[in-house]
Amino acid sequence: MSDALPCSPLELADRIRAWAHELGFASVGISGIDLGEAEARLLDWLAAGRHGDMDYMARHGVTRARPAELVPGTLSVISVRMPYWPDEAADAQGVLDDGELGYVSRYALGRDYHKVLRSRLQKLAERIETVTGPFGHRAFTDSAPVLEVEIARRAALGWRGKHTLLIHRDAGSMFFLGELFTTLPLPPDAPQPDHCGTCTRCIDVCPTGAIVAPYQLDARLCVSYLTIELDGPIPEPLRPAIGNRIYGCDDCQLVCPWNRHAKKAMEPDFAVRNGLDRAPLTALFAWSEDEFNRRLEGSAIRRIGHERWLRNIAVALGNAPAAPAISAALQARADHPSPVVREHIAWALARQHSPDTPT
């Protein structure tokens, strides 16, 4: 393949970086495909059952750590990142501190990032083809069994933090990652060193204790897993710790010192939609299924469905300060056809009527 290239692999890599920046990516790196160490950690994680009900992770097994098996012929992976924090979003901690508001993870406030990044990665591939001619490639954005943090680490886009997310020294961790698996023989970048040091803020702040040790996450305890991936009831002992987080959780990132350097999103598609940066829980709970689907068209949130949406908000309403309006909102849906929703509403009403609930 290298003999067919009109320029050296190093020159092509430089061009790819320039094109990626033109397409709105904050940075781009290149990695090889040997993920052997990460594969061993993945297998240990799966064996411990820390993936919870995410059966697809076990189903794909070691394919996640073997790019050339996932996309035959892969020689190099182009890894990119794009900031997502909307500039106009309400103060995150202020929303978390107000029990009457619903907290939505800041990455999900705008358009579905899967669509945005995949489209840009495809355009990047098309730009490359103008120089190389057709080549094998496939774009990924948190959409297939890909070890994207490990790939990005090896591509010098940052290091894996103790919360297991990627951290960039000059940009924190509030960005999306995407990958372009390619059959091009590109020169890999050198990984960056770990800069977490002795800091344990992300571990200490996790509301459910999901970061069970540095660099180890038990998804079964993670608020993001509980509110997004988990189907069925949320374990009752974990509900109080969820607070008003109705879709995902940012706590470990909010306290990370490196996020002092986090960059705001420049992409208009990530702007806040539907006022979800500080919306009242009672208003969101009142959305019908049709309204949920209409308002959240093009949003990553829509994939959880209306039932999980109501389940999550019911938990948040149960954790909210006792108020007649909250009890009335819960009572209005007490006969919902879903047994999961009904059970969470009953739990929330019991919490609202408990003498221990603050007003």
TrEMBL record:
Domain of life per record: Bacteria
Cofactor(s) needed: [4Fe-4S] cluster; cob(II)alamin
Coiled-coil regions listed in the entry: none
UniProt-annotated binding residues for cob(II)alamin: R64, D142, L166, L177, S224, C249, D250
Positions contributing to [4Fe-4S] cluster 1 binding: C196, C199, C202, C256
Residues at the active site: D142
Compartments reported by the entry: Cytoplasm
Function: Catalyzes the conversion of epoxyqueuosine (oQ) to queuosine (Q), which is a hypermodified base found in the wobble positions of tRNA(Asp), tRNA(Asn), tRNA(His) and tRNA(Tyr).
Protein's recorded name: Epoxyqueuosine reductase
Encoding gene (name): queG
